[in-house]
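Protein in question kept underneath.
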Amino acid sequence: MLVRVENVSKQYMVGEQPVTALNRINLNIEEGVFMAIAGPSGSGKSTLLNLIGCIDTPSSGKIHIAGRDVSGRTPDDLARLRGRSIGFIFQTFNLLPVLSAEENVEYPLLQFKELSVADRRDRVRHYLKMVGLADFGRHRPNQLSGGQRQRVAIARALAIRPKIILADEPTANLDHRTGARILRLMRRINRKTGATFVFSTHDKRVIDMADRRVDLEDGEIVRLGVRKAKHEWGFALERAEDDYDDDEETVDAADE
């Protein structure tokens, strides 16, 4: 199992008031999946993604990545793990504006002391070609469209050859057509390379393309789904209607 999340909870303090973002989450992520963590704003999906990505640490419970318990690691240990094992794709792209597309993709590789300059450049060219930007390597981010910048971000995430790629609302800042193209690109890369993708999203297009889904509400998993056919899911877990908030007025307001 690539990722195991065991009984994980996360609390934050807002002033003097504790707020529970996640409550006793248990989740397994297999290698090679294309998974959507879905839910409304405030459901905990970004918090869960940050915990899996070792950007944050759980208040309780354990997280294992590739068989390693990362829960009690120091910030430096987590930074090294992120740098070599976890690729990130953000909705705001997070490209360095003073660097070219090639340099942005190469940047995380600078910590790989075992790679020569030639090795790094070969890898950069390979992944820029994979995302369809072989001819745009010298362009800076302000010379690229939103879709092209997101493609650079995908190439940068892939360049470290990570165990898992985490994408936080990757289509949120793209128009509908460009977002659809970016999703299809990531799905092709997933199928071609076997790279594991995990998204936090409320975009139905991502869910429709996923082969695994995790539905969150109020910091808890309410459904775990495995795709059986194009428009059919099989649910390993589905919380009963009686378990939902029985305040009908509150539910209706949330749905609106």
About this structure: The helical segments are 45-52, 75-85, 101-106, 117-130, 146-159, 176-193, 204-209, 248-255. The longest strand covers residues 17-29. The first helix runs from residue 45 to 52.
